[in-house]
Write a structure and sequence with these properties.
Elements lengths: L16 H43 L2 H7 E5 L1 H4 L3 H13 L15 E6 L2 E10 L17 E8 L4
Length: 156
């Protein structure tokens, strides 16, 4: 329905007020639905960007590590020896076993696997560039220092 044009005084022509109210409500509802869809699309794009940065950081070459953040290995993993550390870090870099249980937010920021009888966890945390507080926006590599921590489950 289309409301009739306003009269010279700026008011709707007589008899069209109720129809105009319905149209206005429909436009507001449609606008709200569009905003919700855009917010979902924006959130999907944001999550996708975080996932992309996490994968790049986790898999990346040394230059990406320094640009996006740093990696830590706990003393428990380190105690397994250099060959084990190399093997475990290789598994972290190539990890693809994401599911709803270990990746509920679809950001690829956590993983777990077994290595020679040891349960290994890895996780990515997001800090501001000074590493004093949480990142204001993990989707922005200019504002975020990623920290990848690899640990024994018993270290957690």
């Amino acid at each position: 329905m289309i409301a009739s044009p306003p009269s010279k005084g700026g008011e709707l022509a007589p008899g069209r007020g109720a129809q105009s109210t319905k149209v206005s409500a429909m436009v507001q509802t449609t606008t709200h639905e569009a905003q919700s869809k855009n917010a979902c699309r924006n959130e999907d794009a944001r999550t996708s960007r975080i996932r992309e940065l996490n994968d790049e950081f986790r898999r990346g070459a040394q230059q990406h590590i320094q640009y996006l953040g740093r990696r830590l290995v706990t003393a428990g993993v380190w105690a397994l020896g250099p060959v084990a550390c190399f093997d475990i870090m290789s598994r972290v870099r190539t990890f693809e076993d994401f599911d709803g249980g270990n990746d509920p937010w679809h950001e690829h920021d956590f993983g777990a696997f077994d290595y020679k009888g040891h349960k290994i966890f890895w996780k990515i945390d997001y800090y501001d560039k000074e590493e004093r507080a949480a990142s204001p926006d993990p989707a922005d590599p200019g504002a975020t220092c990623r920290v990848l921590t690899v640990m024994l489950a018993s270290d957690y």
